[in-house]
Amino acid sequence: MKTPVIAIFDVGKTNKKLFLFNEQYKIVFERSARFTETVDEDGDPCENLESLRLSVFDSLHEVFRKAEFEVRAINFAAYGASLVYVDEDGRPLAPLYNYLKPYPEALQRKFYEDYGGAETVAFTTASPVLGSLNSGMQLYRTKYEHPELFDQIHYALHLPQYLSFLVSGRMYSDKTSIGCHTHLWDFTKNDYHEWVYREGIIDKLAPLARTDELYPASFPGNGYGVGVGLHDSSAALIPYLVSFYEPFVLISTGTWCISLNPFNHSPLTKAELEADCLCYMHYQGTPVKASRLFAGYEHEQQVKRIAEHFGQPSSRYRNMAYDRGLVDRLRKGGDPEPIGGKVSAFAQRKLSDYASFEEAYHRLIMDLVALQQVSTQLVIKGSRVKRIFVDGGFSKNALYMNLLADAFPEMEVFAASMAQATAIGAALAIHQSWNSKPIPNDLIELRFYARPDEKEKKENK
């Protein structure tokens, strides 16, 4: 008897993974790949698109050779802000430009002058001004810097939709990619922004498809359907949306720590945009208010600094216990202000002030959580949220979780663990189309962190 499965490609900047999930959403097969980056015509690093394309086909050939599985559907989740320019046959016409590629200042200035100013565009598109990370601006740049290339483009597909095209042969856009800090979508009108029409960009965007629909495959195989793919941050939220109905905020932690609130429907304010808030798009088409913090990156850099100073390995922090007494003692010292609301106070601290790796590391996490509290509060404000879920790297960090529970005394704070939230989200988006069983109610494992005064009350009873 063959096991019915769904195949999910989860394509990150570093790791490219293929998972097979059974109907209970358990991983029954996994394959991982990493590719060496290549460079674009300016010498800037970019994704190796040909390696990625070949890897998709190689992985599928391997899966279809496995007689024990019946593949019922395939879907994709990939990082955003990356466009593949294709001709009518779907052949790439240019490199997959990196979203960290510097954006020409003069062209950016012209764009905002033509369309009402940076503040107005940021407000209507629910995204801060981020240069190439606003993927619509990559298309705008191509039109003015490479008009001959622009004329040849049949469609500009976001990366998840390009991957979907490779298997389905159909070209579509999807709202989770179009609605994520692209500058393409006007959240006040729920339509493409005026500039998309005026600049002729609309002709380069494939028709919008529903995220929960399946399309026939052109790739050989037996009667499976293909999803249109999702932006990875939107996909990672789906397991929580199908598992919990009470309002919550999800802090998804990694290099970026992104606080996502699908229950906050108030429009973004100017102050929120300046504080790096934006809207992601819910897989069913509604806005999800979010705030971003580069905290995982800062943690990595500062742990290296601490380790070098104390002559210890960087990994020392991993099994460190939370020391409440040490935290209370450190709180008595004066606190420098965070730098511009984006970098914690720790960057300004002298390591010679601390007696040990433990002491310095406790101080680092205290400073990062102080910044996280401000960032997360931005998306909680004005909503009825009473729960915070934390997934990713920091959810396994006892110091971070205890300090976060302390920072939000009015909330229930949980560390959430589930294997491969992004990939499972992409599978759940099309659950009805491939899976005859109900969604399991144990997808996410939760660990509750009581705030310290609650613990003391219980212990004194």
Question: What can you tell me about this protein's structure?
Answer:
The protein is of the alpha/beta class. It folds into 2 domains: 3-228, 2-Layer Sandwich (Nucleotidyltransferase, domain 5), CATH 3.30.420; 232-461, Nucleotidyltransferase, domain 5. The chain is built from 17 helices and 20 strands. The protein has helices spanning 49-64, 105-114, 118-125, 135-145, 147-152, 159-168, 175-178, 194-198, 232-243, 270-274, 295-310, 324-331, 357-380, 398-407, 421-428, 431-434, 452-460; strands spanning 3-11, 16-21, 27-33, 38-39, 45-46, 69-78, 83-86, 155-158, 185-186, 191-192, 215-216, 225-226, 230-231, 248-253, 257-261, 277-281, 287-293, 387-392, 412-417, 445-449. Strands 1, 2, 3, 6, 11, 12 and 13 form a 7-stranded mixed β-sheet that branches. Helix 9 packs across helix 15. The model has no long low-confidence stretch (mean pLDDT 92).
**Level-2 CATH architecture of the largest domain:** 2-Layer Sandwich
**Approximately how much beta-strand content do the residues carry?**
15-25%
Shape: globular
Structural class: alpha/beta
Q: Distance N terminus to C terminus?
A: 56 Å
The number of helices is 17
Report the top-level CATH class of the largest domain.
Alpha Beta
Q: What is the mean pLDDT? A: 92
Domain Carbohydrate kinase FGGY N-terminal: 6-196
GO biological process, one term: glycerol metabolic process
Protein name: Sugar (Pentulose or hexulose) kinase
Organism: Parapedobacter koreensis
